Amino acid sequence: MQNNEKKFLDKLVEKPISLIAAVYPLVLVALVGIGLFMTSNNNAMYQNQVPPKLVDTLSVVKELGVQDPRISSAVDLATLSTATPEMLEKGKATFTNVCTSCHGAEGNGDGAAGVALNPKPRNFHAVDGWKNGRKLTEMYKTLQFGIPGSGMSAYDYLPAAERISLISYIRSTFMKDAPKDSDQEIKALDDKYSLTKGTQEPGQLPIAGAQKLVQKAKATAIASYSAAVAKLLADKGQKDGANIFLKISIDPAKAMATLANAKDWNSSKDELKKAMYFNLGENGFNGKAAYLADDELAILYQYLKEIVS
Asked: With contact defined as beta carbons under 8 Å apart, do 111 and 101 qualify?
């Protein structure tokens, strides 16, 4: 047996081509088989088996910080003519954070976010085509109101001093021979926007905190009007106001809920009448509410003000 194996190996060594010839068909069949398998399963082989995690950025709520109502810093009118180095530094930071996405870092109007805009963002180096003008007072108007029909929105939420710093930076950095404002124009700007007095700015609550306040207010209103319904039913047959209300309502609880959702019903008899007449029949009140005499309306109005705290 060993002699036969030795003879076979000797023949292979002497004639290796015979080994290749014997194995080649098997290798070829294997390669063709692998190729057919890969071709028929190409989509499955490259398919991601782990489902991607998609984040809906519109549903991501950025939490706000707590901010008390305040008066923003007053503006020194002298700085409208001659900006300080501190103002220019502040204006540069604001420009980088707020403006470069559309206007570009060099103020050429070539920012990435402005590519699809029509008209294109302002090129601050250009002299022509300014909607409101190139003076500081005119650029302030642009920040205050924006430019309708363009991608330039209003930036009135920025404090006045920050807006002036931003304008000063743009004028000193990108604009050649920026036109000066007259003393009268600067005074008119101050008179209109009270720059030297500071700007009253509202406070700010975190979103979660604001939601809790709204929910608390709703819960308080529901409790108040629920107690009013209980009082109403308890006064049935004993007080004229309760009897009138029950006479003109299909569903007393629903009618009371209508008043709970009406903002100004308790400010006057006329407002109460409007609340009862709006969507009559669906709001818990019936058609008899439209035929109340003035004295009945007065009694009902006074009674409701007493039982609704």
From this structure: yes
| Beta strands per DSSP E along 90-220 | 200-201
Q: Which helix (H) or strand (E) holds 71?
A: strand 70-71
> pTM of this prediction?
0.47
Q: What is the pLDDT of residue 59?
A: 53
Q: Which two tokens stand for residue 285?
A: 């009140």
- Triad 293, 296, 301: Cα angle to 5°: 125
Joined together, the tokens standing for residue 23 give 């194995």
Q: Residue 204 pairs with which residues in a beta bridge?
A: 67
Tell me the pLDDT tens digit for each residue of 109-154. Answer: 999 888 888 889 999 999 999 999 999 999 999 999 999 888 898 9
Taking a C-beta distance cutoff of 8 angstroms, is the pair 136, 167 a contact?
Answer: yes
CA distance 92 to 186: 22
* 269: nearest Cα among 292, 285, 237, 238: 292
